[in-house]
Design a protein that fits this description.
- Helix 1 crosses helix 2 (43-50), helix 1 packs across helix 4 (74-89) and helix 4 (74-89) packs parallel to helix 6 (115-124).
- By secondary structure, the protein is of the alpha/beta class.
- The radius of gyration is 17 Å and the shape is globular.
- Helix content is 42%, strand content 14%.
Amino acid sequence: MLTNTEVQCIIFDCDGTLVDSEYLSHQALQQQLFEETGLSLTAELLCEQYRGAKLALILDELKTQFCCEVPEGFVLRYRERVEELFTSELHPMPGAHDILSQIQLPVCVASSGPLKKIQTALSVTGLLEFFNDRLFSSYDINSWKPEPDLFIHAADKMGFSPSQCLVVEDSLIGIQAARAAGMAHRLYDPHGIYQEESSDIRISHLSQLLTDKSIVLNGHDA
């Protein structure tokens, strides 16, 4: 259990943490895979198995498991489909606006997705104003979770040490990265799919960040 951890900066994941995009992203992948390779998988299955994973790794594993080759330009067409779905159907996670309006600490986003995807997701949902250009992508440093590099990079750019940062993530891959970076962390699990994880680090609603007594936000109890 975290005890009296002083937090100076909060690093948010994007997909599935700030915006309700995990299903939409995997829906786009499911549709693209079926149309271009004939592979028939459900978006639910893809989401369950690959939440938070690097796209290239997902495609490599699908290739190995199902012996399917994606054609040239597949990723570009997939990204375009994701952007279309985001523009028409993406919503912020419950409480995201409220929590970001109340937090008085520096905040940033560190996501495995491309910068354009992060910007689109936050812009469509009205959350971009809380972060401006404090957006960090795995594609910028060529390192993906569960490697800790992205979180360490984000902390450095924000001007804080890892011990001063709190990571909020919805995937176990992200939590592994936060642990490896030596950062305090909270697993955002609104659907209760990670019951095996300690209740000390799990939250079911973003508002719990403000009432978590095991964290000290900038010198003041949350």
